[in-house]
Write a structure and sequence with these properties.
By secondary structure, this protein is of the alpha/beta class. About 40% of the residues lie in helices and about 20% in strands. Strand 2 and strand 3 form a beta hairpin.
Length: about 170
């Protein structure tokens, strides 16, 4: 009887954890203040988030000192090259300092825009569902401004293909 009760408790706990995780993964509207943010680009220009509103956006938080971040950049570049003509936007927000990002971008080709979020980028990623503040972190933002998917860790080609169908 004790074993049956323990099994029921474990199953209930697993079910509750699954429901909580599932509800966190479902679409969540972004705070309107997000679209008022502006970031410097490595070439000294300003990138306004409001300019990216209204089209699907793959937003990737990364850093030059993060090996999985650097490893996924070519995959994100290919996604941008393939799907930008279909309305998709990709933005890399570097949680890093300007000098390492500039050096990195002179050595590594990235086809999508990159902006500098610095350390505040961690808090921005948390507001989008990155509770651990870990890198890399990717958020898929729908046309209507809701976060449709969040991914902590390196993305895969299959995930990108699945996300591309969201539009």
């Amino acid at each position: 009887m004790i074993a049956a009760l323990a099994g029921t408790a474990i199953a209930g706990g697993v079910g509750l954890a699954w429901q909580i995780e599932r509800s966190r993964q479902q679409s969540q509207t972004i705070d309107p203040g997000f679209w008022r943010l502006a970031f410097s680009t490595p070439d000294g220009l300003s990138l306004q988030m409001s300019a990216l509103r209204g089209r699907p956006l793959l937003l990737n938080f990364w850093a030059t000192w993060c090996p999985p971040c650097v490893e996924e950049l070519p995959l994100l570049s290919r996604f941008h090259e393939e799907y930008s003509s279909k309305g998709w936007q990709v933005l890399g927000l570097a949680v890093d300092q300007i000098d390492p990002v500039k050096r990195f971008l002179t050595q590594t080709r990235v086809s999508f825009p990159v902006a500098l979020a610095g350390l505040p980028g961690v808090e921005i990623s948390r507001s989008l569902g990155n509770s651990a503040g870990a890198l890399p972190f990717t958020a898929v933002i729908e046309v209507g401004g809701a976060v449709h998917h969040r991914k902590m860790g390196r993305v895969t080609a299959d995930e990108l293909r699945n996300w591309a169908a969201l539009k």
